[in-house]
Amino acid sequence: MPHPEDAPLSVSELNRRARQALEQDVGEVWVEGELSGVSRPGSGHIYFTLKDDRAQLRCALFRTRARFVAAPMRDGDRVKVRGQVSLFEPRGDYQLIVEAVQAAGVGELLAAFERLKTRLDTEGVFANARPLPYPPRHLLVLTSPTGAAIRDVLAVLAARWPLSQVTLIPVPVQGREAAPALISALGLLNRQPALDPTRDAILITRGGGSLEDLWAFNDEHLARAIFHSRLPVMSAVGHEVDVTLADFAADVRAPTPSAAAEQLVPDRRERYHRIEGLAERLRRGQHAQLETEAQRLDHLRARLRHPGEVLAARRKQLAQLEGRLQQAMRTRLVSERRSAHHLRQRLSLRSPERLLEQAGQRLMRARGRLHQAMPRALARHRERLGGLARELQAVSPLAVLGRGYAILEDTQGRVVRRAADTAPGQRLTARLGEGRLDLTVTRADACDTRTDDGKPSE
């Protein structure tokens, strides 16, 4: 017991601790019971009470989870729910926050359904996606002859498209004999295509029901038979929320039998209105085309001219071209005459005879000047040559030799200037004013004989 001096808790604090204790200690649980007081306010949440013969429990299914509940929730239904035990603090209400809802007793069936669905999907049994003929010429309907499904289908087909032929293949659609009967009917229809080549589509359908009622359409062998069907198959089993393995194996799925009929055939009224619209468009198009062609014809008729008018216009044009040609020819001839006269004048100024005559005259004048200039030039050159000869004679060694002097040379042609440069027995050559003498040195005196001006004597 708390001590009397301990501070008391507030109501909100106590409710908060109680909520935390419930959520931590109990946590998420599965609870089975009967629905009571199901309420659906505008918020989208669902509030209800789950009860048994000795107790009841308030429950809340929020909108984010309520949209995943396939089956309708009605008072008196026995369900199994999964949720989190909690407490609504403002009112202190003990409640269960629901996460999922299942009809009681169907959990095992749903688990088996999911396992079989996964296996067939892995094997490719759900890979059919062939388009159905639109509209089918001969539709084969596999369903109960006394059920509401065939009445809905026939009523929709008759209202929308009565041209399609419909054949009912009566089969049970509930119970143990339903799946074998459907499989047998599918096999028979696919083995006898030659009986009626217009048969081009199969519809498997029935109305809504519980999971147990629809369980025949979750048969594995039926799903495989639908997958291997030569004719394309549409499945419309149950209501919009019901899904079976037959729906997955079929080429096309419809949510209800009536929706299947609407998908199979067009609405004849829409087609009629469309044909009327197309006919009206065709009439308007024809009228517009006729008007366009009429305008084009008028335009061509206006452009069309009589051949005589065309020839007259061509003659006039030809005469104009002929006059222009003659005028051009006369102008060209005058221009060519002027050009020829100008060229003749230029040629006369530069005639070869005249040029030769002028060149001859220049040659005669040049020859006269040459005859006059040559004697004077020869006299000048002779006079200059005589002066150069006299100057050369004055400095020439030969003139010295002519006065009795001689030039001594050794055998290599070098001039001997001193006696010391010779040796006894050496052969020398003496060059005189006229001729040469070969000499042999018998003695060499190295005396220095100089002239009065101090230069060595020669």
From TrEMBL:
E.C. number(s) listed in UniProt: 3.1.11.6
Annotated OB-fold nucleic acid binding domain residues: 9-101
One cellular component term from this protein's GO annotations in UniProt: cytoplasm
GO MF entries: exodeoxyribonuclease VII activity; nucleic acid binding
Catalysed transformations (reactions): Exonucleolytic cleavage in either 5'- to 3'- or 3'- to 5'-direction to yield nucleoside 5'-phosphates
Compartment(s) of residence: Cytoplasm
Exonuclease VII large subunit C-terminal domain span: 128-439
NCBIfam families: xseA
Protein purpose: Bidirectionally degrades single-stranded DNA into large acid-insoluble oligonucleotides, which are then degraded further into small acid-soluble oligonucleotides.
Protein name as annotated: Exodeoxyribonuclease 7 large subunit
Gene that this polypeptide is encoded by: xseA
